[in-house]
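Troubleshooting entry. Yesterday's outputs looked truncated, so today I'm pasting the complete records for two proteins to confirm everything comes through intact. If either block looks cut off, that's the bug. Protein one:
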Amino acid sequence: MQLSDFNFQLPNHLIARYPTTNRTDSRLLVLDGQSGDIQHQQFNDLSELLNDGDLLVFNDTRVIPARLWGKKSTGGRIEILVERIIDSQRVLAHIRSSKSPKAGAVLHLHQNANSDETMATVTVVGRHDALFELMFDGEKEALSVLNSIGHMPLPPYIDRSDELADRERYQTVYGKKDGAVAAPTAGLHFSEQFIQHCQNKGVDTAFVTLHVGAGTFQPVRVSNITEHKMHAEWLEVSEQVCEKVRLTRQRGGRVIAVGTTSVRSLETASHSGELQPFSGDSEIFIYPGYQFKSVDAMLTNFHLPESTLIMLVSAFANREHVLEAYRTAVEHNYRFFSYGDAMFVLPQR
């Protein structure tokens, strides 16, 4: 398939720069991947689409304040985006600068892009392809420094600086494991009260972990999508999750993935044909033709044109139906991307 097969026209004003006042205030487009039928609802209506015995699978990663600013010892300004925490002192990161720093270089970190006061320092240990390994100096741990002077890594299409409110709103209410540099955005619509409301209806919940990387925003650079190589992201699917999925299937319930990251987690753990515990890196690339093994429905936001995420949804619900749903969403002024509205997607069978 060609990259252009997943393109659509999106007016700039439909990109959501800010979240709704309340998490559950978003709109919900419901797409039947078999028939192509579309319904326009509100996110709060999701509970009416769930059945007693269904299982909602969430991604419990937490976004770290991964964006840092500073200077090289030579005076050149730098911008750092942490991609992965290796241990308490070391991280892998992207560095934007006029000239790439070399191993042994000391980088001075500031409170923000306009500050010159050194708040912490890191040393460049080496380079791994596009990523730099950095060692945080002194007794401060990497995560402590990030929480102190780091900024929330809002996606590039949210063309504004991060604000204090983003520390809470660009984070799910159930996230508990630090490590992501992008939010699992379908989960941003859930409040604790709404999750409890679903559970009171007899809907079960389970939690996987996938630390979303900056590669999720990288464009596909090949015309033939089968030639695309996915970035690696760390994920974990526990035995408890596998058991909940098995019990859900036994009682005739549906496994509903909240977000494409939950889809990728479950499908990675099902690579043998049967869902099994998994912990490690995944480079799974799901596009039309893929046979889903563990997901019966999904909740997701609206994704970028020609992105791997719209390809994943197209694999689940028929590319033509998905693109028609996107065209309809544009016509009805749905809000797009991370802080935007949601879709509840039923599969093509």
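Protein two, checking that the full record survives here as well:
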Amino acid sequence: MLYIIRHGETELNRKHVLQGRSDHALIAKGIDQGRKAADWIRKEGISFSRVYSSPLKRAVQTAECVAPGITVVTDERLIEMDYGPYEGMSLFKPGKEVLKFFRDFANNPAPDGMEQLSDIVARTGEFVESIKEECIGTDILISTHAIAMKGILEYLDRDANGRYWSKNIGNCEIYKVACTDGKFGTPESVFKINES
């Protein structure tokens, strides 16, 4: 089984800023979210044989919270979307070209300087294909970021047609995907932190 988790909260998440590839650590709340995810994993009886992560601190820290004692293997293909000149932009005051993109990810290309969604699907899909054989009969964890995670889900669910781009994936939300006979099943959200 393949499990995919979005990292816990950072200071820039809290401030609603596009952090992209800037390397920020988890705040106390993010560490607590990771512990809650770890508690759920323990209660489910899940035991990871391998843990992969984006190289950015927030994803590595989340992986370490969720799967303590297991070596975290980082891979650049799991890194967050490159927001280019828009990195650090407040989501309360997005530029009109960014707002247009965010209103309809599936049908509007990313603004100039941003990584295109098709490229994210290609690189994350390439990573998932590279570990497909490992997922048979064992549990694997991937710790990544919201947009990179959506890229993985779009890749795995061939009928998605952009459905995941507009989904809100919360901090430390977990999806699972079955892998049998060398084929991946349909992704399913299995854990969310209730923030209300």
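Both blocks look complete. Sanity check on protein two: The helical segments are 11-14, 28-44, 57-66, 96-103, 117-130, 146-156.
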